[in-house]
């Protein structure tokens, strides 16, 4: 969908905070040059070809928990109903994932213990996928692949996963669907479903590797806390 089509099809409401859903690729490209808000959010500037004006919209960037945060070990509960609140969470998670340059994110990673995952493994970053209550109903083969995680920043390791899976879930519209997945998509779906059960890719590694990753991330965290400076008040910008 072209940006102009999106703008024409779904005009922003006159009041309230407008949260863009699609196309993220455009919003994200704009957000790269976006302004960081003291709230932790990001302002995205989207150009409207129709009106030849810049639309400024707030983008949600939820706080992503980092290993070894014990909250990443929580088990997520099934979503009872894909209602407006669940859809809002899905959209906020997608925005957070794109803003963090990730390919997948589970609700547990933003401290919401609900069975919701979002992903986009496309090169073009414009194929968002949303799954509520995802379940692997078929899994074939076992292959090693390189994995990373937004909750384990800076570390990539080989993990063995099923080569081909079929996942059953509820979509953003609340309707059940099944999807077959291979390659990176299959790996990503399995990685994200693991999060919902409190499992991380580092759990598949040796104790030695896991300890090294944990120590380095703990140290990074300490350094960041010590070097944090007070932000200038918004009025000073
Ligand atoms: C899970 O992970 C995944 O270290 C999703 O500095 C990853 O999106 C499944 C990321 C790989 C299969 C293969 C990681 C971003 C993103 C980092 C991610 C980082 C910045 C990880
Ligand atoms: Co992850």
List keywords for this structure.
single chain; 237 residues; alpha+beta; globular; disordered N terminus; binds cobalt (II) ion
Outline:
With 237 residues, the protein is of the alpha+beta class.
Explain what this protein looks like in three dimensions.
The protein has 237 residues and is an alpha+beta fold. It contains five helices and ten strands; from the N terminus they run ααβββαβββββββαα. The strands form three sheets. The chain has a five-stranded antiparallel β-sheet with strand order 4-5-6-9-10. A three-stranded antiparallel β-sheet has the order 1-2-3. The model is unreliable at 1-10, 12-26 and 35-39 (pLDDT under 50). Bound molecules: 2-phenylethyl (2E)-3-(3,4-dihydroxyphenyl)prop-2-enoate (QAP) and cobalt (II) ion. 2-phenylethyl (2E)-3-(3,4-dihydroxyphenyl)prop-2-enoate (QAP) binds at residues 100-104, 147-150, 153-154, 187-188, 191. Cobalt (II) ion binds next to helix 4.
Strand order of the largest sheet: 4-5-6-9-10
Ligands, ions, cofactors: 2-phenylethyl (2E)-3-(3,4-dihydroxyphenyl)prop-2-enoate, cobalt (II) ion
The helix count comes to 5
Strand portion: 15-25%
């Amino acid at each position: 969908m072209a940006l102009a089509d999106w703008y024409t099809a779904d005009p922003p409401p006159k009041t309230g905070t407008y949260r863009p859903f699609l196309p993220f690729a455009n919003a994200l490209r704009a957000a790269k040059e976006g302004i960081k808000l003291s709230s932790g959010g990001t302002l995205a500037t989207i150009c409207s070809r129709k009106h030849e004006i810049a639309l400024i919209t707030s983008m949600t960037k939820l706080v992503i928990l980092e290993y070894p945060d014990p909250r990443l070990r929580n088990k997520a509960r099934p979503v009872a109903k894909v209602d407006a609140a669940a859809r809002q969470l899905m959209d906020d998670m997608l925005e957070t994932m794109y803003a963090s340059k990730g390919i997948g994110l589970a609700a547990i990673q933003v401290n919401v213990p609900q069975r919701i995952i979002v992903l986009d493994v496309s090169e073009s970053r414009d194929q968002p996928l949303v799954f509520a209550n995802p379940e692997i109903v078929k899994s074939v083969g076992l292959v090693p692949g390189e994995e990373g995680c937004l909750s384990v920043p800076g570390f990539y390791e080989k993990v063995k996963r099923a080569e081909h899976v079929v996942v059953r879930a509820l979509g953003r519209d609340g309707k059940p669907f099944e999807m077959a997945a291979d390659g990176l998509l299959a790996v990503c779906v399995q990685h994200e479903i693991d999060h919902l059960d409190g499992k991380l890719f580092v759990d598949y590694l040796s104790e030695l590797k896991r300890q090294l990753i944990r120590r380095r991330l703990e140290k990074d965290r300490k350094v960041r806390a010590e070097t944090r400076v007070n932000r200038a008040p918004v009025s000073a910008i």
